[in-house]
Every structure is written in structure tokens, then in C-alpha cells.
TrEMBL record:
Phylogenetic lineage: Eukaryota, Viridiplantae, Streptophyta, Embryophyta, Tracheophyta
Organism: Aphyllon fasciculatum
Assembly: Part of the 30S ribosomal subunit.
Protein's name according to its UniProt entry: Small ribosomal subunit protein uS11c
HAMAP family: Ribosomal_uS11
PANTHER family: 40S RIBOSOMAL PROTEIN S14/30S RIBOSOMAL PROTEIN S11 (PTHR11759)
Annotated TM spans: none
Length: 138
């Protein structure tokens, strides 16, 4: 059986839902939130619009393994892969939290080939914040 020859002026041979031209992002911001239970990596452009994100949980790690440095490394690789596909070459890094994945995430970002402009620690620190609970009486 031979294939039917499409008409030249037919609308059916036009590609439906043609892809939009994806914006090239030469510079971005990589946010790493490292808690003791998980590591979340978000890649944004300069204005703060999310380009891609990943976490240790979405990479398939469950339970206490989500807080490990290896899980953080894998989540960084997943998040940065799409950002590099969009043309990201330079990035600022904001690291938040006390988790084990902080150093591993930063090492994975350096190995990815993205030029780092600066690395900033944005962990929230209380300036003698909330009032502590009252003394326990036994």
C-alpha cells in the first residue's frame, strides 16, 4: 500500500502547535535550599521567573536519603540541565539552610560548566527574634 500524497494547499500538513521560540537566558540565579530532610534547587532568570527546579524527592530519593549530599548533587544536575539547554552561561548562587547538601550542591554547580559570578549565603538569622517559652516548673 502506498501513502496518500498530501495536497499542497492543505492545512493538515502544517505543524500544529509549533513550538514557541524559547527565550535564551545568558545569566541566571541558582537558589539552593538545603534543609536536614531535603535539598531544593531552583534556577531562575534575573527577574526571578523560574526556569527549572528539582529536589532530592523528585529525583527518586525517599526518607532520610533525601538529606544526603549525593541526593543534593543529583538534584542540582537535574535542575541545571534544562537551564544550560536554554543557554545559561553565568549564574549567581544563593544558598539557604543548614543541611548536609550545601557543599555538595555547590561542588556540582561548579562542575556543571556554568561560570559563577558570586556565591551568597542567605540563611535567615534571627536578631534575637521570638520570645522563648516560659520556664518549665516541675
Amino acid at each position: 500500500m502506498t501513502k496518500a500524497i498530501p495536497k499542497v494547499d492543505s492545512h493538515r500538513n502544517v505543524r500544529i502547535g509549533a513550538r514557541k521560540n524559547t527565550c535564551r537566558i545568558p545569566k541566571g540565579v541558582i537558589h539552593v535550599q538545603a534543609s536536614f530532610n531535603n535539598t531544593i534547587v531552583t534556577v531562575t532568570d534575573i527577574r526571578g521567573q523560574v526556569v527549572s527546579w528539582s529536589s532530592a524527592g523528585t529525583c527518586g530519593f525517599k526518607g532520610t536519603r533525601r538529606g544526603t549530599p549525593f541526593a543534593a548533587q543529583r538534584s542540582v544536575v537535574n535542575a541545571i540541565r534544562t537551564a544550560i539547554g536554554r543557554g545559561m552561561q553565568r549564574a549567581e548562587v544563593m544558598i539557604k539552610g543548614p543541611g548536609l547538601g550545601r557543599d555538595a550542591a555547590l561542588r556540582a554547580i561548579r562542575r556543571s560548566g556554568i561560570l559563577l559570578i558570586f556565591v551568597r549565603d542567605v540563611t535567615p538569622m534571627p536578631h534575637n527574634g521570638c520570645r522563648p517559652p516560659k520556664k518549665r516548673r516541675v
